Amino acid sequence: MNNHDLEKRDIAHTEDAAVDHVPEEDAIDKKAERRLLLKLDAVILPMTVLMYLSANLDRGNIGNARLQGLQKELLDNSDNKYSVVLLSFYITYMLGSIPGTLLSKAFPPNYALGAGCLIWAIAASCMAGCHNYASIIVCRLFIGLGESIFGQAVVLHYSLWYKKNEIATRLAAFIGAGVLAGAFGGLIAYGVSHIKSHIETWRILFLIEGLPSVLLGISVVLFLPGRPEHSRFLTESERQLELLRLRSQNLDEGDTGIDWNGVKRAFTDWKSYVITFIYSCMQLTLSSISGFFPTIIASLGYTNADAQLYTVPPYAVGFVVMVIVNHFSDRLHKRGPFIIGVFTTNLVGWLLLLVVTHNNRARYFATFCIVIGGYCTIPLIQSWVSNNTGSQSQRAVHLGFLNSLANWAALTSPFIFPTSQKPYWHTGFGLNLGFSVAAIIVTSIMMIYYTRENARRDKVEGKPVLGQKVEQAKYHDLAPGFRYTI
């Protein structure tokens, strides 16, 4: 921690010498809390999960469409043009992520999230009508714009409703929809490939996966609960209980709009960039899977149609592992050790693909590992950021970093799997392997830092008092009494 941070903490400590108290966990009616959580989960989870399922289908179907003739018909069978189409998504996705996430802080989250969903849904549906290279790039740009408004804003939205030790499990269900999208996408593409029609099958694929998302976007605007303070979804007694729950962990910031000091804190805090680097290591795997997973499966000796079907089991297993890992992460209140474990699985997968050249069973097993590594890490890192940022505005910007700055790695993925290296793709497999190693090392360093910083604060301030009011909204992660999640 630099001298500027220490000075701010000393000021905060002086101003907050009189310790206010927040409700203790024991003061909350546990039965009523369980009923409230069930009610929240019954609406918030299905709608956000469906959005993520939709987003991943509409983003990832380009890989399935490639095998169904899109590259041949629109892109002159050019690898470079296909790579540029993949790349175009990330341009708007990265540029829009920080302002897009802040929209859910400045406006009711259901309006912001619903608008993002409508943008990508309309653009994804329009891809069915593309007849040239330029038009498909324009559609992909708008898909990226829509998803930039949505991507990390859902994590922010969860932090408005759920306590710190409840987020990772919910995010696992949310991100798990992306894993299921890979499975459903393969099944849908397999089914569509057998349709006999005068319309190209890849156009039918875009329509089938794009049009339902338009209805979803409208539903989100109308029915997704916005903020606890104003939502008509809650009765007055439920609202008071929800605010009591949030207050017990100093999360009751209220509807205060954007706090530009929190925005500044996110930009000036070195930890924002280190955690973002770890996320970028995952993004390389995720974007590699999104653009090339059916192609990698096909390289194991399957036909293009069968390859779509064989993408399903790795995604299904990845979903189950994700839910289990994040459930235990919440129960143990730990993030770093689980992040290291998942990246180690990812490392094993890319290593097998790189060094095993003739055993297709081992290579197929490796595809399970990279799906687990690509997806399971997402909710863990997002929860880590959510837990370790003190205020909502700081959290919104840091979460935005995960899509904007972290996607520099994803920009390389369209170019590291050239057809000339098929079926061993040493460049793509090797780069993913190297980034997995880097992620393990940096995560270990951050765990050591957080442990030492928590101990230093305990020494300076004394251990946090149970029920102590922590001024996170005012001083962010520098507030006296704030401790980092390891």
How can the largest sheet be summarized?
A: none
Please state the structural category: mainly alpha
- The radius of gyration over CA amounts to 23 Å
Q: Treating each run of at least 4 consecutive H or I residues as one helix, how many helices?
A: 20
CATH topology: Growth Hormone, Chain: A
Q: Which term fits the overall shape?
A: globular
How are helices and strands ordered from N to C? HHHHHHHHHHHHHHHHHHHH
The chain-level mean pLDDT equals 87
State the separation between the terminal residues, measured CA to CA.
16 Å
CATH class: Mainly Alpha
Q: What is the CATH homology-level superfamily?
A: MFS general substrate transporter like domains
Show unreliable segments.
Answer: 10-19
Transmembrane segments: 36-55, 82-104, 111-134, 140-159, 171-192, 204-224, 273-297, 309-326, 338-358, 364-385, 397-417, 429-450
Membrane topology: Multi-pass membrane protein
Protein name: Major facilitator superfamily (MFS) profile domain-containing protein
Keywords: Membrane, Transmembrane, Transmembrane helix, Transport
Would you write up a description of this structure?
- The chain has 486 residues and is mainly α.
- It has a single domain (13-478), classed as MFS general substrate transporter like domains (Growth Hormone, Chain: A), CATH 1.20.1250.
- The protein contains 20 helices and no strands.
- It has helices at 3-15, 30-67, 70-74, 79-106, 109-126, 133-150, 153-161, 167-192, 201-223, 236-247, 260-268, 270-298, 304-310, 312-332, 336-355, 360-388, 392-404, 408-412, 426-461, 472-475.
- The radius of gyration is 23 Å and the shape is globular.
